[in-house]
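Weekly structure sync, notes
Attendees: PL (lead), two postdocs, one rotation student
Agenda item 3: pending single-chain targets
PL asked that the sequence for the first pending target be pasted directly into the notes so everyone works from the same version. It is reproduced below exactly as submitted, 82 residues in total.
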Amino acid sequence: MLTCQQVTELVTRYLEGGMEWRQRMAFRCHLALCPHCRRYVRQMRVTIATLGRLPEEPPPPQVREALLAHYRAWSRKPPPSV
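Predicted structure, written out during the meeting:
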């Protein structure tokens, strides 16, 4: 049986149809028993559909640079200590 964390890690592959049948069945079994993951998969489907309707225009240069700077700063942060 898959865990909720595994479902969240595999959701893109599931929605794109890239799973082998055993993994897909395990995924579906988890969804049958877990309302939280069913909701998550629904939210991902809505997100994908919504983003697919956005126009294909790049963000303004200043927005792009701000996003890249934010991402770079975030990616350099050390992981939290346990």
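Discussion points:
- The chain has a mean pLDDT of 91.
- The helical segments are 4-15, 21-33, 35-52, 61-76.
Action: rotation student to compare against the earlier draft before next sync.
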